[in-house]
Amino acid sequence: MKGPDKILLITDSSIASGMGPGVYTSNARTVYVDELVGRLENGTISSSVVPLRRDILNFHRHSGATLPEAVRMATLNPARVLKLDHALGSIREGKRADLFVADGEMNVLLTVLDGEIVYRGDAPC
């Protein structure tokens, strides 16, 4: 495996990501979603519907990468490649405060956007 600083974890997840099985509209098309994939009416795969946090956990479990390494592969590494690491990708003073806090199973406990808490477990924000 390449070193953890040379791997990017990205996703092609759609707007239906994490919403569960059902029928959704995306880009003016009807998408039929199961647990993993969104498909168009003719069966063509439209996108993944697995949230990036699940991809991070799957990569960690199946690659030998530590969970912090897998998180970095989905946050700081892509920001660095896009030359946005001055503002995104890690928690540092002066950077955008967009982050989430998760448990060891990548269940989201807290979400912060632009420094404001927008989700906190089951509690209203």
Structural class: alpha+beta
What is the average of the pLDDT values?
A: 91
Major beta sheet, strand line-up: 1-2-3-4
Q: What characterizes the major β-sheet?
A: 4 strands, antiparallel
The percentage helix is 10-25%
**What is the number of helices?**
3
Rg (CA only): 16 Å
Kindly, what is the distance between the CA atoms of the first and last residues, rounded to a whole number of angstroms?
41 Å
> Topology as H/E string?
EEEEHHHEEE
Low-confidence stretches: none
Question: How would you characterize the overall build of this protein?
Answer:
By secondary structure, the protein is α+β, with helices and mostly antiparallel strands. It has a domain of 86 residues. The strands form two sheets. It has a four-stranded antiparallel sheet, with no helix packed on it. The protein has a three-stranded antiparallel sheet with strand order 5-6-7, with no helix packed on it. A hairpin with a 5-residue loop joins strand 3 and strand 4. The chain is globular and about 45 Å long.
